[in-house]
Design brief:
The complex is a heterodimer. By secondary structure, chain A is mostly beta strands. Helices cover 9% and strands 34% of the residues of chain A. The radius of gyration of chain B is 19 Å and the shape is globular. In chain B, helix 2 packs parallel to helix 3. Classes of the chains: A mainly beta, B alpha/beta. Chains A and B meet through strand 6, strand 7, strand 8 and strand 9 of A and strand 1, strand 2, strand 3 and strand 17 of B.
């Protein structure tokens, strides 16, 4: 084993111990440094980590103070009490109501407005004179317009106009004579296809249902039923067909028969055991009344029907059988 | 004054340009535009077919009427095919069916004829199926396609409201409609559904659709919005649209429905007494022009050789969406 400067090679040197105070010990450190920093003013240096988050920087201090004061003010906790009421103020000076006047001179109208600041005016000049509208140039009367339509119709030579509506109904209008008309499709080459025929009549369409039926086998001309329920001859008289009166609520109306004749009768039929039985016939005199709109139309009150279900009438024809009209609760107009 | 016998589906003939009005002397007194009667822009025409019904061989003028119509459709109209909506014969006998076949062979040599059984072929049930095949070349019910269109032909099985359809026929119809739900389907069945067109003013008094099968059929067709049903049976003429707007065409049951008058024995209410009369001298049916977006039904009087304005209709057939597998059997008639 060799030695190097008094130390045996292969010997393990002791690790220096800063806290060893015995100079005889191998781990004693001689001449310990007393200044451990390169600087001379670092006494009191930090020997461990200190958390400085949330610490206020000096530069932010004024704003933080202001914020704290504002919050204190807003909280209201530091508000003072209300002061005493103030003294009434002095009266103001009198106001001036504005006035407006209008004056006209020649074709100029002047509007004047006066207020505390003085008078201001505005002028309006009349417009230029207009012209009187001329019939035929500026306007047409209703009669003029109708006349024009008729002239156009005459000029065209086609008095019928019309249209096809959204439901495919062919609606025709115009000045048509009564009669039968045919309507056809027409192609460009002139080929025609019959659609149908229409009958035009200017006569009003009846709004009632006629129960008289001269073609019925029970319609008897030149006859009447006497009080013994026997059919006998009666020149000019007629016994009508049977008709149902069970739904009558107000009246039976009759036209074309003279019901004021002494031989005129109601013939009543009652339903007994599912079959009709002839009741007593009653003279119409004293029961019927002429309508207030047509003296040839008679009204028979519903109260005369009683429990009868079916009626016939006997009366003198005022025209032909085809002219007889009998209705239930419908006026013959 | 107005003409109110058209319905909204009526259209003017394709070549028409205006409507003219004439007085009793034949003098024209006015002209008006077609308005809503103007035919729509039809798209591309695809083909035409004939649609006949109630031939009733060998009743009265039936053979003459059948010969005339087949010849016209075969030679003059160049239709792709002709469909006959039942009652080919008067009694459904083998002899009458043989005469029917002979007429088809002779007068429609270039035009296929697709026929179905009506109640007059169902008189000898249950052999209707077996008797139809030799003389029509088709079974009781079948389908065929033409272009993208499907034709569904349903023969009548028996002449009563219990077995209008053979067992399995409605199931087959349901499956066929479901399979072709996105296509235009022309369905042919002889009897008009009760409450539908084909019974103007209630002239025809016998309801063959009161049974469960009838109700099933109606709800099945109402489900499939791309169906156009053709039927016959009542024989009622085109002109009865003048007294009933639903005489010839209706959508009252929720599907497009077309009634075909009788080819041999049209019926009318000429007396106006609410009962029909047979009119042997007349003969009516349809030529159907099929376009991409619709069909033009052209009702024809074969005796006078005229198309009838009152039976000229445009039906829009733009395809509608039908949800798959959503049909509910309301009567339990179809066994799945």
């Amino acid at each position: 084993m060799s030695k190097i400067i008094g130390i045996t090679v292969g010997t393990t040197l002791p690790k220096p111990n800063f806290n060893q105070t015995d100079p005889t010990k191998g781990d004693y450190i001689r001449n310990k440094p007393t200044n451990i920093s390169y600087f001379t003013n670092d006494a009191g240096y930090l020997t461990k980590h200190q958390d400085i988050s949330h610490k206020l920087d000096a530069s932010a201090l004024p704003a933080a103070v202001n914020d704290a004061l504002a919050q204190a003010k807003d909280s209201g906790e530091f508000d003072g009490k209300d002061g005493a009421p103030g003294q009434p103020g002095a009266d103001g000076t009198d106001g001036v109501s504005p006035t407006v006047s209008v004056s006209r001179s020649g074709r100029v109208t002047t509007i004047s407005i006066t207020d505390k600041n003085g008078t201001k005016t505005a002028t309006i000049n009349d417009g230029a004179d207009g012209t009187t509208p001329v019939r035929g140039a500026d306007y047409w009367t209703d009669a003029d317009q109708e006349s024009i339509v008729q002239q156009v119709i005459a000029a065209l030579g086609t008095p019928v106009f019309g249209r096809v509506d959204e439901e495919n109904n062919i609606i025709l209008t115009g000045t048509l004579a009564d009669g039968t008309y045919t309507i056809k499709y027409e192609s460009e080459d002139g080929e025609e296809t019959l659609i149908g025929t229409l009958v035009h009549t200017s006569a009003p369409v009846p709004t009632y249902t006629n129960l008289a039926n001269p073609s019925d086998s029970n319609w008897l001309e030149g006859k009447r039923i006497n009080s013994s329920k026997v059919v006998v001859d009666w020149e000019g008289g007629v016994i009508t067909n049977y008709f149902d009166v069970s739904g009558c609520k107000n009246f039976i109306a009759v036209k074309g028969l003279n019901l004021l004749n002494g031989n005129s009768r109601y013939y009543k039929y009652y339903e007994v055991g599912g079959t009709l039985q002839e009741g007593t016939n009653i003279g119409t005199s004293g029961h019927v009344a002429q309508s207030d709109y047509d003296p040839s139309v008679y009204h028979i009150p519903a109260s005369d029907i009683q429990t009868a279900k079916i009626w016939r009438l006997g009366g003198l024809l005022t025209g032909t059988s085809a002219d007889v009209i009998i209705t239930i609760d419908e006026e013959i107009k | 004054m107005s003409y109110r016998d058209f319905i909204p589906q009526n259209i003017a003939p394709l070549g028409a340009r205006r409507i003219s009005i004439y007085d009793k002397n034949g003098s024209r007194v006015g002209q008006i535009p077609l308005g809503s009667l103007t035919p729509p822009t039809p798209g591309k025409k695809l083909y035409s077919f004939g649609a006949l019904s109630d031939v009733h061989i060998v009743y009265n003028t039936a053979q003459t009427d059948f010969q005339r119509a087949l010849t016209y459709l075969n030679e003059d109209m160049d239709v792709a095919f002709t469909c006959i909506c039942g009652d080919l014969t008067d009694n459904g006998t083998v002899a009458q069916l043989a005469q029917y076949k002979a007429a088809v062979d002779a007068y429609s040599p270039d035009t296929p004829v697709y026929a179905i059984a009506g109640n007059h072929e169902a008189t000898s049930e249950p052999n209707t199926t077996a008797r139809m095949l030799p003389y029509t070349g088709q079974p009781l019910y079948y389908s065929f396609t033409h272009g993208d269109d499907v034709f569904i032909m349903l023969g009548e099985y028996r002449w009563n409201n219990t077995y209008l359809f053979e067992d399995g026929e409605l199931q087959w119809l349901k499956d066929t409609l479901e399979e072709n739900k996105d296509k235009r389907c022309f369905v042919f069945f002889h009897v008009f559904p009760w409450g539908d067109c084909g019974n103007a003013n209630g002239l025809y008094p016998h309801d063959l659709f009161s049974g469960a099968q009838g109700n099933e059929f109606k709800t099945l067709l109402a489900q499939h919005k791309n169906v156009i049903l053709f039927h016959g049976h009542s024989h009622l003429k085109f002109c009865l649209q003048e007294v009933d707007s639903r005489a010839n065409y209706s959508e009252a049951l929720g599907f497009k429905s077309v009634h075909i008058p009788s080819l041999a024995v049209p019926r009318d209410d000429a007396n106006g007494d609410g009962t029909y009369e047979d009119v042997y001298a007349e003969s009516e049916g349809y030529v159907v022009d099929v376009y991409e977006n619709g069909i033009h039904l052209r009702g024809r009087d074969f005796v006078r050789g005229e198309f009838l304005p009152i039976a000229s209709y445009w039906l829009d057939t733009a395809l509608q969406t039908v949800e798959a597998g959503t049909y509910t059997d309301p009567t339990g008639t179809i066994v799945t």
